[in-house]
Amino acid sequence: MTAPSLLLEDVTRVHGTGETAVRALDGVSLEVMPGELVAVMGPSGSGKSTLLNLAGGLDLATSGRVVIEGEDLSTLGAKGIAQLRRRRVGFVFQDYNLIPSLTAAENVGLPLELDGVRASQARRQARQTLDLMGLRDLSDRFPDQMSGGQQQRVAIARALVGSRRLVLADEPTGALDSHTGEDVLRVLRERCDEGVAGLLVTHEARHAAWADRVVFLRDGVVVDSTGRASSPEDLLATGSSR
Amino acid sequence: MSVKQGLMALLADGPMYGAQLRAEFEDRTGGTWPLNVGQVYTTLARLERDGLVEPTGEADGEGRISYRLTQAGTEEVGTWWTTPVDRDSTPRDELTIKLALAVTVPGVDVQAVAQTQRTATLKHLHDLTRLKQQVMRKQREAEGAPSGPADAAKHDEGNHDLAWLLVLENLIFTAEAEVRWLDHVETRLHRESLRPFRRSGAHTTALPDDAGDHAGTRTEARR
Ligand SMILES: Nc1ncnc2c1ncn2[C@@H]1O[C@H](COP(=O)(O)OP(=O)(O)O)[C@@H](O)[C@H]1O
Ligand SMILES: [Mg+2]
Questions:
Q1: CB-CB: which of A189, A226, A242 is closest to B31?
Q2: Taking every annotated instance into account, which residue ranges of this chain make up the domain ABC transporter (chain A) (predicted)?
Q3: pLDDT at A133 > cutoff 90
């Protein structure tokens, strides 16, 4: 039996204490298998970013367990989590988080370099990934020389570069037009088809539809979730004779 | 839309007989709106009566008659392309009506109705997206393939894929709009439920137990 790439067990995150405490997540359980892309939808303030931050080890649960490829994050310590995030987890932030003094290719290659990959090799892999995102010609630009949508795609390339096995993306298509947004989803989908596990926060149903299933959050609770993917036979029966 | 306009637009591409028209129509729209041959022939007969199409000659060996546009027909097709589609008449929509009635009939759990539908529509959206992915993959493969002679046929096929893609995307945007609207409905209902003079009973569950086959669709108590 394959272990899930990401497992959340009864996870609760409370911000603050006493009167002002906010239960951002309340007893959420979730499993993402290798090759699976799961979308998270829900109104703003429902806990989507909190969920993603916990899954990526950027934040710690108040109670419950977060397990990545069999490793319980609460047992890893800061160093262990940092290493896990460099090697195995790609994170796309809502606000890109690119380093202004580095070019696109340097930004994308950074996690590899930090992990000991030679600079030239890291740069080459970075360019390949940028190419996938349709940014080949912008490799040597700095973030402030790019549009919001282009920076967003650089951020996504940085999350995909190398052999990351879990990709977490928070509204990665927010700043993109309809076609570019779709290109991003297609690339993410292809990565997952190759065995990467993905968790994607989005408020656009059209983008969530690229995922194998959709989980709905409301007030920190999973209120609904679509089933597993349909079989190919079901697909062919959908409004088409082809 | 009437079948008439569709058939005439196809005939602008060259003469065709009934079965051909039907096949072309379905091929270009991915079989989303199937036509039956009977419908095609009655329409052709009416168009011929109105002087918009005419037979190109006698029936062939298999009894098939090809039709082409007359001058008047060509003009009518031109008018069709340049006239906007009428959006003033609102087609009856079962879901809209269902929700409108759900908020007025006592004892219906409107939230559950909206949520069940959203899950179903999302699954549909997912399936449409998978189909779209297949069409796009096919297109990319065709782009990569070296071109040679016999490309007119390939070109046609490419155009038909593009047509099918546009139809699919229309279905996708429509489904997305429905999901957005349902999200909006949920939020609206939630707000209304917080207002003082709400009619009572609007949140009591009275749906049949088999509210669709989507496991996990129905929520537990929404507090
Ligand atoms: N650092 C924080 N301190 C206090 N409250 C927070 C913090 N981060 C998030 N929250 C609260 O937690 C809830 C969930 O937030 P978030 O996960 O960002 O929602 P979403 O991404 O779905 O919009 C919100 O009510 C938000 O105000
Ligand atoms: Mg957020």
A1: A242
A2: 6-241
A3: no
ipTM over 0.90: no
Q: Is A44's C-beta closer than 6 angstroms to any atom of ligand 1?
A: yes
Confidence band of A239 (pLDDT split at 50, 70, 90): very low
Q: What is the mean pLDDT of residues A164-189?
A: 86
A210 at interface of B, judged by CB pairs closer than 8 A? yes
Total domains in chain B come to 2
- B223: in domain: no
Q: HEC states along chain A?
A: CCCCCEEEEEEEEEECCHHHCEEEEEEEEEEECCCCEEEEECCCCCCHHHHHHHHCCCCCCCEEEEEECCEEHHHCHHHHHHHHHHHCEEEECCCCCCCCCCCHHHHHHHHHHHCCCCHHHHHHHHHHHHHHCCCHHHCCCCHHHCCHHHHHHHHHHHHHCCCCCEEEEECCCCCCCHHHHHHHHHHHHHHHHCCCEEEEECCCHHHHCCCCEEEEEECCEEEEECCCCCCHHHHHCCCCCC
Residues of chain A found within 8 Å of residue B127, distances taken between Cβ atoms: 230, 234-235, 238
Coarse DSSP helix, strand, coil percentages of chain B, rounded to the nearest 5 percent: 60, 5, 35
Among the listed residues A190, A187, A98, the one whose alpha carbon sits nearest the alpha carbon of residue A150: A98
Measure CB to CB from residue A209 to each of B31, B126, B219 and give the nearest one.
Answer: B126
Does B10 share its domain with B58? yes
Query: Hey, what domains does chain A have and what are their CATH numbers?
Result: 6-236 (3.40.50.300)
CB contact under 8 A, A206 and B124: no
A43 lines ligand 1 (CB under 6 A): no
Q: How far is the CA of A44 from the centre of ligand 2 (A)?
A: 7
pLDDT-based confidence at residue B138 (cuts at 50, 70, 90): confident
Q: How far is A228 from chain B (nearest CA, A)?
A: 9
pLDDT value at residue A232: 42
Report the residue from B172, B187, B219 with minimal CB separation from A43: B187
Judge if B41 and B117 occupy the same domain. no
CB of A225 less than 8 A from some CB of B = yes
The residue segments making up the domain with residue B56 are: 3-82
Same domain membership, residue B188 and residue B150: yes
| Whether A212 contacts A38, CB under 8 Å | yes
A50 CB within 6 A, ligand 1: yes
Residues B152 and B200 in one domain: yes
What is the pTM assigned to this prediction? 0.79
Distance A172 CA to ligand 2 centre (A): 11
